[in-house]
Amino acid sequence: MTDQIQAAAQTWATKQSAAEGLTPLVGRLYRENDVLLTVYGRSLLNKSVTGIIKAHRYARHFDGAELDLAETLAIARQLSEMELGPSTVDLGRLAAAQRSTGGDLAVLLADQLAPALGQSAGDSDAPRDVVLYGFGRIGRLLARILIDRAGGTGLRLRAIVVRRGGEGDIVKRASLLRRDSVHGTFDGNIVVDEENETILANGTLIKVIYSNDPSQVDYTAHGIDDAIVVDNTGIWRDDEGLSRHLACPGASKVILTAPGKGSVKNIVYGVNSDAILPEDTVVSAASCTTNAITPVLKVIGDEFGVQNGHVETVHSFTNDQNLIDNYHKGSRRGRAAGLNMVLTETGAAKAVSKALPEFAGKLSGNAIRVPTPNVSMAVLNLNLERETTVDELNAFLRETSLNSSLRNQIDYIHSPEVVSTDFVGSKRAGIVDGLATIVDGKRAVVYVWYDNEFGYSCQVIRCVAQMAGLDMPSLPVMSA
């Protein structure tokens, strides 16, 4: 028993040592080359030593064994000596490729990372200015993401635009950025300058601009130019309303964090993001639910065909609802959000067809708001074109989550223990719960968890990067 205890302690110490060696390489590659290192989609940036070890343990779900930190450390060291440009590099997949081929590591990396070779981050254009119009739940999470990635991504948060809420407004908004009841404390340092109306967060200087009208801001007066404005208010959803932002000097593009109306393109990143053209000035990132279900529906439709179906969303309450019973323009949303399940409508099912035209007229949908503050679930009840089994469908969805072009949108879990809070902070658009899958011939029921705040915000940032024309290949390249 003593030998086992000593062996366990030594193994842990070895892992700690390797993780400590990996930490500075992760930071340096990100700051100097704009290269984000991941392990099977799990980012290693700003992770603690224990967090890095846990990310390597996560690989057991895919390779059947815990990923050896010595392997990834050796790969990262070699990456630090290469002239890599902006990209996301998966150490887990590179390690698996190295084990399968057994060839020279340098040759393998040169082949697998070819799309990112030959251009350093310093050769790229200056970061694109980003303005957040509105600073609510999604706005503050977008700010956190942009600040966290300020060393790379080619995006730079320059300002937030809000209506003045009264005395001490900027201090209160900074406090809401600093502390969040759902997503925890901001990781870093925040300094407020009330006189100059700025917030300094981890070296990112953010100007707070007060305005009641999207067309009445001169961004150039604050040194902001060619900015992408992210409208988080949802007040304007059509091209005419959103184009009011473009009347502002210094603003060149607008993206809406809500479903767009009329001619506004509704984009689900990874599914129809190639529809964002250089000349587009106004697009929508659709809704959190649409982003969660559309990638899953696409791959199921491509593989098995979908005749029709129904989407039922079990959705956390939102700021649109009342804390206690009171008047609301909606039929049921006036009832106390923390005490009731509230049946309401959702346009997410119909909105799927805006990204996937082949689903037009095939899906119905409803939503039930429940007394939880974050993380929702979509239940996809589908009639397929061909028969399948639980094992076949789950194996397909699991493989898709690992080795497809939608691996950053679709996650997969097969655990009897998970509940909604386990998915707070998930960066994927949706997570398939394999143990809940039901199949009866051509009928399938698939359960998809999603962090309707943070997971959606990650999708929005991906769309913003696409609008900015940033090319961030995910390597090694996976099949479609």
Automatic annotation (TrEMBL):
E.C. number: 1.2.1.-
The yes or no answer to whether the keyword Oxidoreductase is present is: yes
What InterPro entries does the entry give? GlycerAld/Erythrose_P_DH, GlycerAld_3-P_DH_AS, GlycerAld_3-P_DH_cat, GlycerAld_3-P_DH_NAD(P)-bd, Glyceraldehyde-3-P_DH_1, NAD(P)-bd_dom_sf
SUPFAM superfamilies from the entry? Glyceraldehyde-3-phosphate dehydrogenase-like, C-terminal domain (SSF55347), NAD(P)-binding Rossmann-fold domains (SSF51735)
Q: Glyceraldehyde 3-phosphate dehydrogenase NAD(P) binding domain location, by residue?
A: 128-288
Q: Which Gene3D superfamilies match?
A: Dihydrodipicolinate Reductase, domain 2, NAD(P)-binding Rossmann-like Domain
Q: Which CDD domains match?
A: GAPDH_I_C, GAPDH_I_N
The record's SMART domains line, in alphabetical order, gives: Gp_dh_N
Picking any one GO biological process from the record gives: glucose metabolic process
GO MF annotation list = glyceraldehyde-3-phosphate dehydrogenase (NAD+) (phosphorylating) activity; NAD binding; NADP binding
One Pfam short name: Gp_dh_N
Q: What class of enzyme is it?
A: oxidoreductase
User: Which keywords, in A-to-Z order, does the entry hold?
Assistant: Oxidoreductase
Query: Per the similarity annotation, which family is this?
Result: Belongs to the glyceraldehyde-3-phosphate dehydrogenase family.
Name it: Glyceraldehyde-3-phosphate dehydrogenase
